[in-house]
Design a protein that fits this description.
Layout: H1 8-27, E1 36-43, H2 46-55, E2 62-68, E3 74-82, H3 86-103, E4 106-111
Length: 119
């Protein structure tokens, strides 16, 4: 599957938000090199989310759940296992922005818990 080119301004805006999340993780003792579950979410209409859900494994994700908010907007949560270092997160964000274009959905960010290696 060929993924589309992403607008650099859009990628830069997402990276600015990503840096804030990474800083917060570091403040909580995160060791970025530790591989852990990371979830990403996309919003969109049911048909677009259905298509994305069907392709999730081909795109390197597993389906976690769908959730509807108070306004009736539906989000699809997908997960993967990876490190949370800058390079890995940049690659994840780029892939998600490509998915956004390819599937006509809206990428809504990523999240994970801080991992300090003591568990």
């Amino acid at each position: 599957m060929t993924l589309p080119e992403v607008d650099q301004a859009r990628l830069d805006a997402e990276w600015a938000a990503d840096k804030d999340v990474l800083a917060s993780l570091r403040e909580n003792g995160d060791r970025a090199e530790i591989v852990r579950p990371i979830d990403v979410s996309f919003r969109g209409d049911e048909e677009a989310l259905d298509r994305l859900e069907e392709s999730a494994s081909e795109l390197g994700f597993e389906v976690i759940e769908r959730e509807e908010d108070e306004e009736g907007e539906v989000s699809l949560f997908l997960g993967c296992e990876q490190a949370a270092d800058e390079e890995s997160i940049k690659a994840l964000t780029l892939r998600c922005l490509q998915i956004e274009l390819l599937y006509d959905v809206e990428y809504d960010g990523w999240g994970c818990t801080a991992e300090d290696g003591t568990e």
